[in-house]
């Protein structure tokens, strides 16, 4: 869904990426700082119930993390290692956000039900990413799903931020929505992968043209 906006973001961020590249900043440096910032701020602010402040700081580091691709393109240093590092740290960053919220819900937030919903979102988020990675490792494209990482982050951070401003019901509604969309996305990717991996293979040289 939001992936269709990626070319727009890429063009907007490219000038800043060029500036950082000229200053000697590498894509991996941007990736590490962004991921570390998300993890630390999530685990510092959220467990203390500072949901609005935490969401603002986390969002700032998420936006910073988006610059790694722009720096890589500007410095012509796109590598498979960089892609692997970015993907891995994205998973850990997402886990830190949801873990911080879980600590709040099971602690001072006194809402075990939302804690379990957050846990489901964390597990299903890993499942969404794993299914795609495993499918592509087996040669099947699995770039489908109603809620990819960008959509999930938007829902989560907006809900947490507004919840921190005491907007009624928005945090619980956002988490339940995220859980539902994550579950649907897992099923979508499982079905897509099954369809692709069970398709009959054409004999070598068979173009399918009669």
Automatic annotation (TrEMBL):
Q: Locate the residues binding a CDP-1,2-diacyl-sn-glycerol.
A: 69, 73, 79
Q: Return the InterPro entries for the record.
A: CDP-OH_P_trans, CDP-OH_PTrfase_TM_dom, CDP_ALCOHOL_P_TRANSF_CS, PIP_synthase_PgsA1
Residues passing through the membrane, by range: 20-45, 51-71, 113-131, 152-169
Going by the UniProt record, its keywords in alphabetical order are: Cell membrane, Lipid biosynthesis, Lipid metabolism, Magnesium, Membrane, Metal-binding, Phospholipid biosynthesis, Phospholipid metabolism, Transferase, Transmembrane, Transmembrane helix
UniProt-annotated binding residues for Mg(2+) 2: 65, 86, 90
Its topology with respect to the membrane?
Multi-pass membrane protein
Q: Mind telling me which Pfam families this protein's record contains?
A: CDP-OH_P_transf
- MF annotations from Gene Ontology: transferase activity
HAMAP family according to UniProt:
PIP_synthase (MF_02241)
* UniProt similarity note: Belongs to the CDP-alcohol phosphatidyltransferase class-I family.
Its subunit composition reads:
Homodimer.
Q: What does the protein in this record do?
A: Catalyzes the conjugation of the 1'-hydroxyl group of D-myo-inositol-3-phosphate (also named L-myo-inositol-1-phosphate) with a lipid tail of cytidine diphosphate diacylglycerol (CDP-DAG), forming phosphatidylinositol phosphate (PIP) and CMP. PIP is a precursor of phosphatidylinositol (PI) which is an essential lipid required for cell wall formation.
The name under which this protein is listed is Phosphatidylinositol phosphate synthase
Question: Which species does the entry assign this protein to?
Answer: Streptomonospora algeriensis
């Amino acid at each position: 869904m939001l992936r269709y906006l990626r070319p727009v973001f890429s063009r907007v961020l490219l000038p800043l990426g060029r500036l950082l590249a000229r200053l000697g900043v590498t894509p991996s440096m941007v990736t590490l700082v962004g991921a570390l910032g998300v993890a630390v701020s999530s685990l510092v602010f959220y467990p203390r119930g500072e949901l609005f402040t935490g969401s603002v700081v986390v969002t700032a580091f998420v936006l910073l993390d988006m610059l790694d691709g722009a720096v890589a393109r500007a410095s012509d240093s796109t590598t498979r290692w960089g892609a692997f590092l970015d993907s891995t740290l994205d998973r850990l960053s997402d886990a830190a956000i949801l873990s911080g919220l879980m600590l709040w819900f099971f602690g001072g937030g006194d809402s075990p039900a939302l804690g379990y919903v957050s846990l489901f979102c964390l597990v299903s988020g890993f499942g969404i990413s794993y299914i795609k990675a495993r499918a592509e490792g087996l040669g099947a494209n699995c770039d489908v799903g109603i809620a990819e990482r960008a959509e999930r982050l938007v829902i989560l951070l907006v809900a947490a931020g507004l919840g921190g401003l005491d907007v009624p019901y928005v945090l619980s509604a956002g988490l339940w929505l995220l859980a539902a969309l994550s579950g649907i996305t897992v099923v979508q990717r499982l079905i897509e992968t099954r369809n692709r991996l069970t398709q009959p293979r054409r004999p070598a040289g068979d173009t399918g043209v009669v």
